[in-house]
Amino acid sequence: MKVLILEDEKPIRDLLSINLKRAGFDVVEAATGESALAIAGKDRDFDIAIIDLMLPGISGFQVCGELRRQYPRLGIIMLTAKSQEVDKVMGLEAGADDYVVKPFSPVELTARVRALYRRMYPEEAPPPQNSIRLAPFTLLLDERKLLKNTIDVPLTPTEYSIVKLLMEQPGKAVSRDDILTSVWGQYFMGELKIVDVNVSRIRQKIGQESSGPQYLETVWGFGYLWRVHSC
Questions:
Q1: What backbone phi and psi angles, to 5 degrees, belong to 12?
Q2: pTM (predicted TM-score)
Q3: Which pLDDT value is given to residue 212?
């Protein structure tokens, strides 16, 4: 796995790099958002980017959004010294898959990286079918892609996992707790809000409008379901 670390504080950057390298990861470092984007533009083989939100120059939010625009399937973990919910939500809305609040344990961060990587490349038995068809959507399991009619809908690794979970059981309401456990893991210490933010991003990407068919529906006070509509 190849990881890009964007952190302007050298002691923290060194600590992250040392621990990730010890865990067997290929690590590339950047101290500014500008250099991180330049590195990513030259080397497109990164699996995961770890981005500090508070940076000199262009912010981590901007870097996150640009990387997400260029590389829809890149795994992104944001680092923030702020614990306010609004900062977490802004980072998630910019395209991050997960967040870690400073100060953090390097062991925890490494575990989060591994967990995100497993969501991106699950080691599981091949499914009995290689696609799930719920018109007008087709989920290509082997390629980890969602198509609306024939158009590719670029999903992040986390968004894909949520869509797969819901499309595998169409018409069934899945609780936010079950989505959190299934996608982020049972030891995830974050908040349920991360589920809602990712669902909101998915709705925007599939083009769901209030006046049209509601494919990804909210079950108020509980969770979400994928509704089947006849075409």
A1: -70, -40
A2: 0.65
A3: 64
Rounded CA-CA distance 130/155 in Å is 18
DSSP 45: -
Rg value, the chain, Cα? 18
Q: What is the pLDDT of residue 9?
A: 92
> For strand 26-30 and strand 48-52, is the pairing parallel, antiparallel, or unpaired?
unpaired
Residues 6+ apart with CB under 8 A from 192: 176, 177, 180
Cα(5)–Cα(20) distance, rounded to whole angstroms? 10
Whole-number Å distance between alpha carbons of 59 and 33 = 7
d(CA 172, CA 151): 26
pLDDT at position 128: 47
pLDDT value at residue 83: 65
Q: For strand 137-140 and strand 2-6, is the pairing parallel, antiparallel, or unpaired?
A: unpaired
Backbone angles phi, psi at 138, to 5 degrees: -130, 125
Number of residues that this document lists for the chain: 231
The three state secondary structure string of 90-154 is: HHHHHCCCEEEECCCCHHHHHHHHHHHHHHHCCCCCCCCCCEEEECCEEEECCCCEEEECCEEEC
CA distance 81 to 62: 17
> Could you tell me if 52 and 60 are in contact, meaning their C-beta atoms sit under 8 angstroms apart?
yes
Residues 138-182 pLDDT 10s: 999 988 999 998 899 999 999 999 999 999 999 999 999 999 999
List, for the chain, all residue ranges whose pLDDT scores fall below the cut of 50: 124-128, 231
